[in-house]
Amino acid sequence: MKILFAGTPEFAVPSLQALIDAGHDIVAVLTQPDRPAGRGMKLTPSPVKQLALQHDVRVLQPTTLKDAVVQADIAALQADVMIVAAYGLIIPTVVLQMPRYGCYNVHASLLPRWRGAAPIQRALLAGDAETGVTIMEVVPALDAGAMVEKGVLPIGPRDTAQSLHDGLAALGAALMATTMDKLQQQGSLPATPQDEALVTYAHKLEKAEAAIDWTLSAAELSRRVRAYNPFPVAQATLGERVCRLWMATDMPGSAAPGQVVEAGPRLLVGCGEGLLQIEELQMPGGKRLSAREFLTGHALQAGDRFGHGAALSSGLSSGQSSDL
Q1: What does CATH list as the number for 2-202?
Q2: How many C-beta neighbours within 10 Å does residue 18 have?
């Protein structure tokens, strides 16, 4: 089939690769314009653009799809179907109607749960037992299209937003490839409307959410640490300095919120309920270290305290995005 692919970040790369590997004719790739990145803020092509160029696929990078000239260029492609994976721009109805078989999106949640920008992180934060991928028809309303296929991915006690992202990207790629095979064979795909009564929204992550509140339960703090890895990264204070927490799990026990209970070989900290076992952390200007490595080089002992991570936006990376 002649496919127009619209995607931008790493999440979309496996889906594009799967469609290429399946032998489909990728008539063009729509991706966002090159953005400044890295220490030198050099203009850098999106991961999807980089893959497209490797396969000599035509790349279109409009700043908007509302422009008549851009729409004419898309119409001239005469695509059979349009595939969307974390593209990041609004797609007007006129563009959605151009492909012969319509437009389908790969979304990183089990719709109708977690429509919106940060479905992976919100599933982790809510303590969901599973997440997944939904292939759906694209409609003007946000993530509201009828559902065509679903794939489920369990959420484990050590999963982070990054590990789930990688698993869902692979799952979505495989699901999209089989879905397009069915479309090619059948000429249409049965779809189930979403139950609007079950809709939840995955609002975009804000940097302020990274502040750790030790009065919360250890179970909730573990979810937060893992959900904010790799962005915006959970933060607390240790003395006068901001400390980033990259991995933490919960365990039974009791201590004052923020109080260090054990500082070798484990690093255990009291919470509103239970203990947080910090497994990987980072001080300003330093590397990410395991708790054992950290304790070797820092004079931390039982009775010391971690502070709340209030108003720590200055310590957060501005070069990362939670969007999918």
Answers
A1: 3.40.50.170
A2: 19
β-pairing, 81-85 vs 267-270, is: unpaired
Q: What is the mean pLDDT of each run of 10 residues along the chain (324 residues)?
A: 97 98 97 91 95 98 97 98 96 96 98 97 98 97 96 98 98 98 95 98 94 97 98 94 96 97 96 98 95 92 87 38 42
CATH entry, 207-315, from 3.30.470.30, 3.40.50.150, 3.30.1330.40, 3.10.25.10 = 3.10.25.10
Distance CA 78, CA 84 (A): 16
111 labelled ligand-binding: yes
Q: Residue 60: which residues within 8 A CB-CB, separation 6 or more?
A: 28, 29, 30, 31, 70, 73, 74
Q: What's 12's DSSP letter?
A: G
> How many residues belong to the chain?
324
State both tokens at 260. Answer: 């260090």
**DSSP character at residue 156:** P
305 bridge partner residues = 259
The token duo for 7 is 């995607």
Comparing CA positions, the residue from 163, 157, 127 lying closest to residue 250 is: 157
DSSP, res 248: E
Is residue 110 a known part of a binding site?
A: yes
What is the per-residue pLDDT for 239? 87
* Residue ranges covered by each domain of the chain: 2-202, 207-315
How far is CA 158 from its chain centroid?
A: 16
Residue type, 308: H
CA distances from 137 to 5, 42, 82, 194, 267 (A): 14, 36, 10, 11, 47
Q: How far apart are CA 107 and CA 8, in angstroms?
A: 14
Other C-beta atoms closer than 10 Å to the C-beta of 105 total 25
Specify whether the CB–CB gap between 266 and 243 falls below 8 A: no
